[in-house]
Design brief:
This protein is mainly α. It is built from 11 helices and 4 strands, in the order H-H-H-H-H-H-E-E-H-H-H-E-E-H-H. Helix 2 packs antiparallel against helix 3, helix 3 packs antiparallel against helix 4 and helix 4 packs antiparallel against helix 5.
């Protein structure tokens, strides 16, 4: 079983890597690919012919396009169609799927923010939190939808402010992991609605840097433990007369520890490799993830050799 700090690290890796490569580029709700068949879909939607547009989208989505940019735009168009057809769940699902194929920070923010506001709305309207006295905001139109996004972000900021402040002072991962996803959602909402994230961007950078530092420390700690266990395993035992009896090896308890550590390191390695790819695609700091991947691969090899050498 992994301890709570390790569990938090594995969960936190995904969000930290994604958000460490984001920029504040202007957000477009849909990428404007130069494609005549997609223009046909857009024209149908502009005319309010959402059923016809939906049919054309599905014809182009199945089988799935090999071009990620095309798949992203089709899914965003599908999300908008489903929303206008009053299919809240279908719209949210399409926007979430689009987020998985986003090729830039702008695309990722647009997909995630749309999914968030649709999920938090009822019957096409976002209702501000009770007690604020705000009127319901229509999310069917894009301009008022952006206003709803800003309203939701403001409410979330008030709700999580104390946790965010605690996370910026944290010396362990759990407080950061506890608020990271919510802060990421606020970042997406601000970036999509305003084209930049002046309020949440700086906090995201601060938490991302702190989390990455703690991750490095955790990998270093595992490395020290593997080295210590290796020295113990390669020490010589002695018989009753004091003569060497050969390599001591690991105890059963130590072997279990190494086995658990291997599973933990494999999770970190898988996530770090994924985030390295995201950084490369989105123009982020690929080098630091490359270094982390290399460290984990090397340490995993040492731990495997120690575990298998009886």
């Amino acid at each position: 079983m992994l301890n709570p700090i390790r569990e938090s690290l594995v969960s936190l890796l995904r969000w930290t890597a994604i958000l460490s490569v984001l920029t504040s580029a202007p957000v477009l709700v849909f990428a404007q690919a130069a494609s005549s068949d997609l223009d046909e879909i857009r024209s149908a939607m502009a005319a309010g012919e959402y059923h016809a547009a939906q049919k054309q989208i599905d014809q182009r989505l199945f089988p799935a396009p090999t071009d990620p940019a095309r798949r992203y735009e089709l899914l965003m168009l599908k999300g908008e169609c489903r929303l206008q057809l009053k299919d809240r769940m279908g719209a949210s699902t399409a926007f979430k799927s689009a987020a998985k194929t986003a090729g830039s920070s702008a695309e990722l923010a647009a997909a995630r923010a749309n999914a968030l506001i649709v999920e938090r709305s009822t019957s096409g309207r976002y209702v501000p939190r009770a007690g604020k006295g705000g009127e319901p905001i229509d999310i069917m139109a894009m301009e008022s939808r952006k206003r709803a996004m800003n309203e939701l972000r403001g409410e979330m900021w008030s709700q999580y402010k104390s946790k965010v402040e605690a996370a910026t002072r944290a010396e362990q991962l759990p407080p950061i992991e506890d608020v990271f996803t919510s802060l990421a959602d606020m970042y997406f909402l601000e970036l999509c609605a305003n084209g930049e994230a002046t309020e949440t961007g700086a906090v995201m950078q601060e938490l991302g840097a702190r989390a990455y530092k703690l991750m490095q420390a955790e990998v270093a700690r595992c490395g020290s433990r593997v080295d210590h266990l290796s020295q113990l395993a390669n020490s010589s035992g002695a018989d009753a007369r004091g003569w060497s009896t050969g390599r001591m090896g690991l105890t059963s308890q130590q072997r279990d520890e190494v086995k658990s550590m291997l599973a933990y390191l494999n999770k970190i390695g898988q996530r770090a490799s994924e985030y390295r790819g995201i950084a490369a695609r989105m123009g982020g700091n690929e080098g630091k993830w490359e270094t982390l991947v290399a460290d984990v691969v090397g340490l995993t090899g040492e731990a495997e050799s120690l575990y298998n050498d009886r």
